[in-house]
Amino acid sequence: MNRFKRLNNDIAVSPQLLVEDIKEAALQGFGHIINNRPDGEGSNQPSGSVIEAAAKAEGLGYTAIPVRPGGIDENAIVAMADILKKADKPILAYCFSGTRSAFLWALASAAIGEADADVIFAEAANAGYDLSPIMPLVDSLSASAQSK
């Protein structure tokens, strides 16, 4: 079973990656890994530095934007937006379950006007993620980006 859930052609999200998942990500053509899980959140998770080393060994880029559950802030959104614009695609972002990564992608995509809110919600829903808890913020960021 593929743990990588495509949101669109440029990004997928996943639950916690293990070292062996990095090789699979490279085989599937991913160009960059985004780690949205803080180190030490779970007792059995590999550290970000272990995943980073595995990514670099496979020729993939790596960025850590750790976000605690319920802790997505403006700095994280700005950092994610920057990576969405700059990183080699497709991108694979991960956290504990994939939900924080999907939420952060949605907020960053809306903030940079990558897609309107309806498209963002549809892409997330197609991958199995319910953005309703952040719907007002995605709508607001999308409207703001579109008015610029």
Detailed description of the structure:
The structure is a single chain. This protein has a five-stranded mixed sheet with strand order 1-2-5-3-4, with helices on both faces. It is α/β, with parallel strands linked by helices and 148 residues long. α3 (74-86) packs across α4 (99-111), α4 runs antiparallel to α5 and α4 runs parallel beside α6. Helices cover 45% and strands 14% of the residues. The longest helix is centred in the middle third of the chain and has 13 residues, at 74-86. The model has no long low-confidence stretch (mean pLDDT 95). The termini are far apart. It has a single domain (5-146), classed as Protein-Tyrosine Phosphatase, Chain A (Alpha-Beta Complex). It contains six helices and five strands, in the order ββαβαβαβααα. InterPro entries: BLH_phosphatase-like, Prot-tyrosine_phosphatase-like. Residues 4-110 form the Beta-lactamase hydrolase-like protein phosphatase-like domain.
Write a brief caption for the model.
The chain contains 6 helices and 5 strands. The protein has helices spanning 19-27, 48-57, 74-86, 99-111, 117-126, 135-146, and strands at residues 5-8, 11-14, 32-35, 61-64, 91-94. InterPro entries: BLH_phosphatase-like, Prot-tyrosine_phosphatase-like.
